[in-house]
Amino acid sequence: MSNHSTQTLSHLDLLEAEGIYIMREAAAQFERPALLFSGGKDSICMVHLARKAFWPAPLPFPLVHIDTGHNFPEAIEFRDSLVKETGARLIVHYVQDSIDRGTVKEETGRFASRNSLQTTTL
User: Fold this and answer.
1) I need a labelling partner for 102 at 20 to 30 A (CA). Which of 9, 20, 68, 80 fits?
2) Per-residue DSSP letters for 7-31?
3) pTM reported for the whole predicted model
4) What percent of the chain has pLDDT over 70?
Protein backbone atom coordinates (compact mmCIF):
# COMPACT_ATOMS: atom_id res chain seq x y z
CA MET A 1 0.00 0.00 0.00
CA SER A 2 1.35 3.42 -0.83
CA ASN A 3 1.99 5.96 1.88
CA HIS A 4 -0.86 8.11 0.51
CA SER A 5 -3.35 5.21 0.86
CA THR A 6 -2.25 4.60 4.44
CA GLN A 7 -2.74 8.28 5.31
CA THR A 8 -6.18 8.31 3.69
CA LEU A 9 -7.26 5.23 5.60
CA SER A 10 -5.97 6.69 8.85
CA HIS A 11 -7.85 9.91 8.15
CA LEU A 12 -11.07 7.97 7.47
CA ASP A 13 -10.54 5.97 10.66
CA LEU A 14 -10.17 9.24 12.56
CA LEU A 15 -13.35 10.67 11.05
CA GLU A 16 -15.23 7.48 11.92
CA ALA A 17 -13.95 7.59 15.51
CA GLU A 18 -15.02 11.23 15.83
CA GLY A 19 -18.48 10.39 14.47
CA ILE A 20 -18.85 7.51 16.91
CA TYR A 21 -17.77 9.77 19.79
CA ILE A 22 -20.32 12.43 18.81
CA MET A 23 -23.13 9.85 18.56
CA ARG A 24 -22.32 8.41 21.98
CA GLU A 25 -22.13 11.87 23.53
CA ALA A 26 -25.46 12.92 22.00
CA ALA A 27 -27.12 9.75 23.29
CA ALA A 28 -25.68 10.36 26.77
CA GLN A 29 -26.31 14.12 26.98
CA PHE A 30 -29.77 14.59 25.52
CA GLU A 31 -33.11 13.47 26.87
CA ARG A 32 -34.72 12.42 23.57
CA PRO A 33 -32.18 12.18 20.75
CA ALA A 34 -33.25 10.88 17.35
CA LEU A 35 -31.62 10.28 14.00
CA LEU A 36 -33.32 11.83 10.97
CA PHE A 37 -33.60 9.25 8.23
CA SER A 38 -34.49 10.07 4.63
CA GLY A 39 -33.32 6.81 3.10
CA GLY A 40 -30.59 8.62 1.17
CA LYS A 41 -26.91 7.78 1.19
CA ASP A 42 -26.08 10.21 4.01
CA SER A 43 -28.68 8.90 6.43
CA ILE A 44 -27.84 5.28 5.56
CA CYS A 45 -24.22 6.08 6.42
CA MET A 46 -25.32 7.63 9.72
CA VAL A 47 -27.31 4.50 10.64
CA HIS A 48 -24.25 2.38 9.87
CA LEU A 49 -22.11 4.64 12.07
CA ALA A 50 -24.69 4.51 14.87
CA ARG A 51 -24.72 0.72 14.74
CA LYS A 52 -20.94 0.69 15.13
CA ALA A 53 -21.16 3.19 18.01
CA PHE A 54 -23.58 1.14 20.09
CA TRP A 55 -22.94 -2.46 18.98
CA PRO A 56 -24.01 -4.97 20.25
CA ALA A 57 -26.81 -2.98 21.93
CA PRO A 58 -29.73 -1.68 19.87
CA LEU A 59 -29.69 1.97 18.85
CA PRO A 60 -30.60 4.08 21.90
CA PHE A 61 -32.66 6.46 19.77
CA PRO A 62 -35.29 6.13 17.07
CA LEU A 63 -34.97 6.82 13.38
CA VAL A 64 -37.30 9.64 12.30
CA HIS A 65 -38.55 9.71 8.72
CA ILE A 66 -40.52 12.70 7.47
CA ASP A 67 -42.31 11.17 4.49
CA THR A 68 -43.05 13.57 1.63
CA GLY A 69 -45.33 11.04 -0.02
CA HIS A 70 -43.13 11.22 -3.12
CA ASN A 71 -40.77 8.36 -2.30
CA PHE A 72 -40.08 5.48 -4.61
CA PRO A 73 -41.70 2.31 -3.20
CA GLU A 74 -38.25 0.70 -3.15
CA ALA A 75 -37.01 3.44 -0.79
CA ILE A 76 -39.78 2.69 1.71
CA GLU A 77 -39.13 -1.06 1.37
CA PHE A 78 -35.42 -0.47 2.03
CA ARG A 79 -36.21 1.74 5.05
CA ASP A 80 -38.49 -0.93 6.51
CA SER A 81 -36.00 -3.74 5.90
CA LEU A 82 -33.19 -1.69 7.49
CA VAL A 83 -35.36 -1.03 10.53
CA LYS A 84 -36.15 -4.74 10.81
CA GLU A 85 -32.51 -5.75 10.35
CA THR A 86 -31.22 -3.29 12.94
CA GLY A 87 -34.07 -3.56 15.42
CA ALA A 88 -34.29 0.23 15.41
CA ARG A 89 -37.42 2.07 16.42
CA LEU A 90 -38.98 4.04 13.59
CA ILE A 91 -41.09 7.18 13.83
CA VAL A 92 -42.78 8.31 10.62
CA HIS A 93 -44.65 11.55 10.08
CA TYR A 94 -46.28 12.48 6.81
CA VAL A 95 -46.19 15.81 4.99
CA GLN A 96 -49.67 14.98 3.66
CA ASP A 97 -51.00 15.08 7.25
CA SER A 98 -49.62 18.62 7.63
CA ILE A 99 -51.26 19.61 4.35
CA ASP A 100 -54.57 18.06 5.42
CA ARG A 101 -54.46 19.92 8.78
CA GLY A 102 -53.73 23.19 6.97
CA THR A 103 -50.45 23.79 8.79
CA VAL A 104 -48.61 23.93 5.45
CA LYS A 105 -49.68 24.82 1.94
CA GLU A 106 -48.65 22.53 -0.87
CA GLU A 107 -46.71 24.18 -3.66
CA THR A 108 -48.11 24.01 -7.16
CA GLY A 109 -46.59 24.45 -10.57
CA ARG A 110 -43.89 22.89 -12.63
CA PHE A 111 -41.16 22.85 -9.98
CA ALA A 112 -43.35 22.23 -6.94
CA SER A 113 -41.71 20.26 -4.13
CA ARG A 114 -42.70 19.02 -0.72
CA ASN A 115 -39.16 19.15 0.64
CA SER A 116 -39.55 22.54 2.34
CA LEU A 117 -42.78 21.31 3.97
CA GLN A 118 -40.87 18.67 5.92
CA THR A 119 -39.70 21.22 8.52
CA THR A 120 -43.23 21.95 9.76
CA THR A 121 -44.07 18.25 9.76
CA LEU A 122 -40.96 17.55 11.84
Assistant:
1) 80
2) HHHHHHHHHHHHHHHHHHHHHHH-S
3) 0.83
4) 93
